From TrEMBL:
Keywords: Membrane, Transmembrane, Transmembrane helix. Gene3D superfamilies: 3.30.70.270. InterPro entries: GGDEF_dom, Nucleotide_cyclase, Rev_trsase/Diguanyl_cyclase. SMART domains: GGDEF. It comes from the Bacteria. Signal peptide: none annotated. The keyword Membrane applies. The keyword Membrane applies. This is GGDEF domain-containing protein. The chain crosses the membrane at residues 12-30, 37-56, 62-82, 94-112, 118-135, 142-161, 173-192. It comes from Ramlibacter pallidus. Residues 198-370 form the GGDEF domain.
Length: 378
């Protein structure tokens, strides 16, 4: 026969179980997203679980000492959440000193003095409020979850600080419930802030690797790929070809139809070059207003001229421009095999551009010009 279950024990188990579940979720997300804030929150929540267990211990001062370490860990986690706030350097130092030095020292002192916990809690709340105030004024959404969480943590700590007599089951339920609210709110704030940070980091990475007008790669990406292709050529004899594509009639389009049509022609040219690069190993980058750099891996100069370069020329002539129905894109290409010498990608592109300038100025009828290694190094 199953005995009657104590409702108080059920509530306490539910609150403690929720915190243990949040510990596991924090560890999983920390490993998935490589975010230290989740690990710090997991440590703080685990300390809160230990503090709840200490409430029912025979020594009345043990819960105060253990619970004072929860704001200490929460302060270190808050530092990680506010790591982007460069203007709060002095306030962050105060929070670091309070969380890493003052609160652990006061936790030890709370074994001997009942006022140590109250002093540490007031000090920590003052410094944490000083750090969070600028973020609140900037209406950062994740702060809306941090503040109720800190209020619940403060309420739990004050409940323990105000009554150091042997704690009852009711005290344990109240404290564990407040700590569960704090842990859940802080978990949500950490996830929200992490999402904002990851989106910002993705935008910065995209700005450094993607041209905003055409969606092609940036010269930095092209240079890195050229270096990688050179290592493959040296090591395995894996050939690669670097080419520079010029939009010959872009200036004439701007003069006849206006700068808006010329700008749209650049976008159309980028799309057609992208469509012409059928292989995943090829990369195209916008070098200048009318020029696009292309790296074709795994092909020699003769094969690249017949396939990649040929497809690009055809792509410019297959359809008229959407903004100028009577005009087509006329491309001119200068290309060379990626050399195994120590010539930097920048120097390599400069020499290809110089030769392309000569071809444009001379109004040559050749649309594909291949430079030999001797011509390139001359």
């Amino acid at each position: 026969m199953i005995g009657k279950v104590d409702p108080a024990a059920l509530w306490l188990g539910a609150f403690v179980g929720a915190q243990v579940l949040l510990v596991f979720l924090c560890v999983i997300k920390a490993n998935a997203y490589r975010e230290r804030a989740y690990l710090l929150h997991a440590a703080a929540t685990l300390m809160a679980v230990i503090a709840v267990q200490a409430l029912l211990a025979p020594h009345a001062l043990v819960p105060a000492a253990v619970l004072l370490l929860v704001p200490a860990m929460a302060g270190l986690q808050l530092l990680d959440l506010m790591s982007h706030a460069g203007g709060l350097r002095q306030a962050r130092r105060w929070l670091l000193g309070t969380s890493a030095i003052a609160l652990p020292a006061l936790a030890v002192a709370s074994f001997f003095n009942v006022w140590a916990m109250a002093v540490g809690l007031v000090l920590w709340l003052a410094i944490a409020s000083l750090v969070l105030w600028p973020a609140w004024r900037q209406s950062r959404p994740w702060v809306w979850w941090v503040l109720p969480g800190l209020a619940a943590l403060a309420a739990a700590s004050l409940h323990v600080a105000a009554d150091l007599q042997p704690f009852t089951m009711e005290d344990a339920i109240w404290v564990s419930g407040l700590l569960a609210v704090w842990s859940a709110c802080t978990y949500l704030a950490t996830g929200w802030r992490g999402r904002i940070y990851r989106e910002t980091r993705a935008r910065v990475l995209a700005r450094n690797t993607t041209d905003p007008l055409t969606g092609l790669a940036t010269p930095l990406v092209l240079a890195e790929r050229v270096q990688a292709a050179r290592h493959l050529t040296r090591r395995y004899g894996h050939p690669s070809v670097l080419m520079v594509v010029n939009i010959d009639n872009l200036g004439a389009l701007g003069e006849e139809f206006g700068p808006e049509v010329a700008e749209s022609a650049v976008l159309v040219a980028a799309n057609r070059v992208r469509e012409a690069l059928l292989r995943d190993g090829d990369v195209a980058a916008r070098l200048a207003h009318a020029r696009i750099g292309i790296l074709a891996e795994g092909v020699g100069t003769a094969q690249a001229a017949a396939t990649v370069a040929g497809r690009i020329l055809v792509a410019g002539l297959k359809d008229p421009l959407p903004e100028a129905k009577s005009e087509f894109l006329h491309f001119r290409i200068v290309m060379t095999g990626v050399p195994t010498t120590d010539m930097t990608p920048r120097q390599l592109l400069q020499r290809l551009n110089a030769r392309l300038d000569q071809e444009v100025q001379s109004s040559s009828e050749r649309r594909i010009v291949t430079l030999t290694q001797e011509e390139l190094l001359a």
